[in-house]
Amino acid sequence: MTGHVLTFTGTALVAVYVLDAEGAELRLAETVRGAGRSYALSARYPLSGRSPVADAFRAGRPLWLTPTELAAYGPIGPTTPETPTTPGVSLGALPLGGDGKGLGCLVVVDEAPDGIDADRRGFIELYAHHVAAGVEAAGPQALTQRRPELPGLTLDRLRVGSFVLHLDSGRMTADTQVLDLFGIRGEDFDGRVETLLAVAVPDDIPALMSVLEPDLLTSGTAQLEFRIRRPNGELRWLGLRARVETGADGTPWRMLGVIAETSHLRPSADEVSLVQRLSAALAGATTVRDVGRAVVGALRDPLGAGRLAVAELQADQLVVGVLAPAEPAAWPEVWRAAWRSEWPEPPSHALPTLAEALREGQVSLWPEGAGLEPGLAGIGPGGLAVLPLPADGRIVGVCLIGWEQRHEFGPEERSLLTATAGLVGQALVRAHALDAEHELATMLQRSLLPRKLPELPGGVAVTRYLPATMGLEVGGDWYDVIPLPDGHVALVIGDVQGHSAAAATIMGQMRTAIRAYAVEGHPPDVVVAHANRLLVGMETDLFATCCYADLDMEEGEAWFVRAGHIQPLLRQPDGTTAELDVEGGPPLGVVADAEFPMTAAGLSAGTLIALLTDGLVESARLDLDDGVRRACQALARADPSDPGGVADALLGGDSRRDDDVALLLLRYDGMRVRPIRASWTVWRLPDAVMHARRFTARTLRNWGLADELDVALLVTSELVTNALVHTRGEVRLNLTLTADRLRIAVNDPSPRTPVKPTTVDWEATGGRGLLLIEAMSQTWGSVPLSGGKQVWGEISLSSPREEPRGAPPEGPSPPEELPAELPEEPPDAGPGERTEGDEGATGRRGPRRRRARR
């Protein structure tokens, strides 16, 4: 066991002391002497007495004594048969069990008048960790009782070698024990790290390089277990522990390391199976919370643990990912204060033992009755394992495993938990990076979608969007709900090919373009055709699918256009659910002159319309037809009184998604009170505003709106005056009475949007019109129309109307109101009044009539 240390450092004697069963003294378990050396040490050292061994054990840190300092202890140091004390001998005492459990001490004696030098101290300290692992695996009592019938109890089975790696040149000096462990003859070793890596198992080389690569090194200690393949084909496990030393400028310049064979410490077949299950679970974990759930599922029940916690370490704070069980009362008070997922202060303030374990980076196993602070003792009263989670040469988190009943840590448990910690640490770093990238992609995607949906007359719309969990790049799914004039609503859903920033860019452009074409008043087929030509003309190879629906919320009529998209789903009030057979055209961006036919459908109150993207009904595990069938079944079973619940039922509970999911759901209720409309074509005559006011006054009196008359006449005057003064061509006045408001709108042929003045001079003769409209109206605005615009203002009714109060006056204006030289009115236009049933009222009574604008 210790022969190598003697050869490499010139140490004369190495001894291992372990704590006795009563915990009263340290007893000598094993001694190895150099050739020709006859030094001896005491067989036992009481903990209550004064000795280098007892002092180092109580202090919990190495004690290095020069001959002078050793002599101050009196006749308790190393002796020879000739002399009870030997001058010129230095001694080192290193406690075993750095996590505070106090396994024993490693004692080295060296013929060094000036003390053991720094290099040998570094190697011996690294070696002490391997000795501690051997002591823990064998059990201290087994060593003191010397029971050779049990395997793995004597420390001389440890095979340990040492090396020095110069980081500036990459040259390595390794002793014969290291070369023997790797199966390399001394004459074949050329001092290059690559020669040793050549026999390592390929899967373990990246982890080895993370320790040995100079560009990634920082000062500190690193440990790793890896596999090599011997020349005879034998697979062997080796453990590496190394310390990086830095120069005066803080730059790493060399590494001191020891390598030991750890095959006898490897887990059993059952434990290997446990690690394999954990590895498989972590492979699919894409978020920090997923990592925590995988650890809980793979370790808690197999280990019989009562509590398990996984937390990230971020800027000296622990961000808790998972606590199991998930009840605050099951955890100590310091953890309950952190139940909102983040500790308010660094953990060292409340849990110094945990902070020390994180600094050391070693797995700590605490048996029942260990003297821990309440915040840790309460996690595992029967035993506690603290697993710092390493990754990329640093500690990225911690896993705590606690047992409620007395737990005996087996000889191989440390190796098992060390392997587990490495897996979880790497998964945690990967998941944290995925979380950040996924959050960025999701934020970009959501910023391109509507922030909120408008309130709709005669219906309720809800949407859902879920980003893919299997990829990180932003997708191209989008949806939109567009209020249109005359009680119409446009529903749009689409999907741009691929997942990339380019797909997201095209998605945003398509959504904006379709909204603009729809608001201009084009029928559905024209809207989609314009969007198709726009995408064909872009400098992209991407295409998009789309489904567009124009709903007349007054009449219950819907017109659908489909461009390569999956069919919409329709649920009738009686629960019957099926795909709506919508005749389709090619995807957008494929054929410039493609035709997109319209399909009509009638809607009854209580009908549900579902527009969705293929991510909801198709995946690597789900066929499209099966997915559509499941969606229809979920839609049929759902309660239409809760549209949000219906949307959630359609999404299901699958948290793993290969593609983005977008869902647009509308419940058509029909209008309780249908709007009444009237319109007037304003001729460009000197008294045109007076005629418009008279038409408005007669219409409002007929509708019983005497209280709103004065305000309505003022708004009418300003809207008509602005249109006549600032535009040319036909001007049309439209009045619409809904259940709770009166809308006054003026259409003109100018596409220029009116601009409200910021200030108006007292001497100015104009510029006050829009200010008056804004002051007198509840809301006002301007929307583009095909070939022009519409400026409108809305006035709230003093009392909501329950049912129609009449129709606007019929017939032309009285003859005395029109000039005698007025030209004859054309068949389809001219001064006069249009009522609700007249096609010419607004030019927007349905998609068929508006096709003429194409």
Automatic annotation (TrEMBL):
Protein's UniProt keywords contain Repeat: no
Superkingdom, natural source: Bacteria
What protein is this chain from?
Answer: SpoIIE family protein phosphatase
SMART domains xrefs: PAC, PP2C_SIG
Chain intervals with Acidic residues compositional bias: 818-827
Instruction: Identify the keywords attached in UniProt to this record, alphabetized.
Output: Hydrolase
* InterPro entries per UniProt: Bact_Sigma-Reg, GAF, GAF-like_dom_sf, HATPase_C_sf, HATPase_dom, PAC, PAS, PAS-like_dom_sf
List where Pro residues composition bias occurs. 806-817
**Could you tell me which residues belong to the region Disordered?**
797-854
Q: Which SUPFAM superfamilies match?
A: ATPase domain of HSP90 chaperone/DNA topoisomerase II/histidine kinase (SSF55874), GAF domain-like (SSF55781), PP2C-like (SSF81606), PYP-like sensor domain (PAS domain) (SSF55785)
Which stretches are tagged as biased composition: Basic residues?
845-854
Tell me the organism. Answer: Streptomyces endocoffeicus
Domain (PPM-type phosphatase) ranges:
455-668
